[in-house]
Amino acid sequence: MDNIIVMKFGGSSVANASAMLNVFNIITSQKCNKLVVLSACKGVTDLLIEAANFSLQNITKSIEIINEISEHHKKIIENTINSELKWKALEKIDVYIRQIREFSEGIHLLQELTAKMMDFFVSFGEKLSTTVFYYILLENKINAVLINSENYIITNSKFGEAEPNYSIIKLKVQNELKPEFDKYDTIIAQGFIGSDLEGRTTTLGRGGSDFSASIYGLALGASEIQIWTDVSGVKSADPRIVEQAITIDEMTIDDIRELSFYGAKVLHPDTIKPAIEAGIPIKVLNTFSPSEQGTIIKENNQGSEPKLHSISVLSEVTKLHFYLDTKRNSSLQIVDILNYLIRRNIKILSSSQSETSFVLFAKLDNQQINNITATYTDYQVEAVEGDLICLVGNNILLDKELLSKLTKQIENYQIDYIQFGINKQLSLLFSKDNTREIIERIHSVIGS
Ligand code: ADP
Ligand code: ASP
Ligand code: MG
User: Fold this and answer.
1) Minimum-distance ligand 2 atom for the alpha carbon of 207
2) Which ligand sits closest to the CA of 190?
3) Is 40 close to ligand 2, i.e. is its CB under 6 Å away?
4) Is CATH 3.40.20.10 what the domain over 307-443 is classified as, yes or no?
């Protein structure tokens, strides 16, 4: 039972019948014991959130969406299962759908939708996808079991963004889950969901199935965690923005952290760290091109060779420029501004200062900007909206040629802010216009 791997498949990997059959082929080609973590089918979590919200005012619309979700899963069953198992699978889907409908009616009646209720509502996305996939495995005589992650991923009660209780999880997984591998070689589990100490359903935050995979991998002492998605690993840019983006063979956890913080949502940021620290290799692989080697994520053993790896972008970011009062201590003024923002839970994306200026970047709505300018009437405060472009690489400040290539690519653009070499990995640029073009130009430097 030594060699256990965790394989996580995201929403697009289980989107429909043909994607699920790809997943089937991938997992059955690996001969070791595996725990397979699945997301909800692509788009279903969004639909469930929509349905839950509609339950309050427009129950008919909510039921319509729930029916759409039902049809989607039933269609996959119709296309993949022919034996009498089909009826069993359809019946299970009906049971879940009935529960969602009843819950939607409950929300309507109570006229209340709390974060706790929302977590329960959206948990059905993963419950439905894993049920369908489990029956596909049974249909093909795979020795598999379907478990309920609510019984193992024990979290605190921070609904919507619950945090795992690693010690309880480890105990449960070691004592109750691992022995299942004596009977089955494949365990299917829902990503994203868990429960608190009182048994109430929780979720780990959007995109949280990566987190589930990492938690299961850690608790099982897995030899590898595979994150299967719809692209061939972590790329030099979001392939939806830069078509020519190339796969990065190896990345460090800090590179991933910077990339995801600044918009590249290929992996959930904090989620994979515990597994990496435990020395478990994590691979990012493509469900639709499984023979490609993808990206392997490692701890921070950076070589020092300067290199630009990847670009990401965070859109609709506000740059706030405070023109400080030169008669007063600038550090105290900055501390005061930071305190103001922290007390209001405003996440600061980056900042820099001089004796007369303090510049920071944050995601702010108009109301928040107005409140800030109304509070700091002593200063001139300038707010500009744009895109924060993030370059992740290695020691780029050490390579003058690379720096000059980068500067050359952007010399004809109006760039509002540049900070090269914030740390070993990160540089930031802020642009108001032509962001896509700027990204494409900078990307041309990668690998050149
Ligand atoms: P999953 O549903 O499998 O969890 P996600 O949608 O969460 O997949 O993440 C994969 C997506 O991340 C890709 O389809 C891609 O568009 C996007 N993405 C953004 N930046 C990058 C990047 N640098 N490398 C790879 N994918 C990226
Ligand atoms: N289904 C969840 C979401 O859409 C979790 C995940 O896909 O990782 O956020
Ligand atoms: Mg994801």
Assistant:
1) 8
2) 2
3) yes
4) no
CATH 3.40.1160.10 location in the chain: 4-230
pLDDT value for 422: 87
Of ligand 2's listed atoms, the one at least distance from the Cα of 40 is 1
Ligand 2 and 45: CB distance under 6 A: yes
Ligand 2 atom index nearest CA of 208? 8
Place of tokens 């119709």: 78
**What confidence score (pLDDT) does residue 301 get?**
65
Q: Quote the ligand 1 centre to 233 CA distance (angstroms).
A: 8
Query: What's the rounded mean pLDDT across residues 234-247?
Result: 94
What mean pLDDT value characterizes the chain?
A: 94
* Homologous superfamily of domain range 4-230: Acetylglutamate kinase-like (3.40.1160.10)
- Split at pLDDT 50, 70, 90, the class of 1 is low
pLDDT at 126 over 60: yes
CA of 67 to the centre of ligand 3 (A): 25
Q: How far is the CA of 206 from the centre of ligand 2 (A)?
A: 5
Domain with CATH 3.30.2130.10 in the chain: 307-443
Banded model confidence at residue 47, pLDDT cuts 50, 70, 90: very high
pLDDT at 324 > cutoff 80: yes
pLDDT of residue 263: 87
pLDDT digits (tens, 9 = 90+) for 405-434: 999 999 999 999 999 888 888 899 999 999
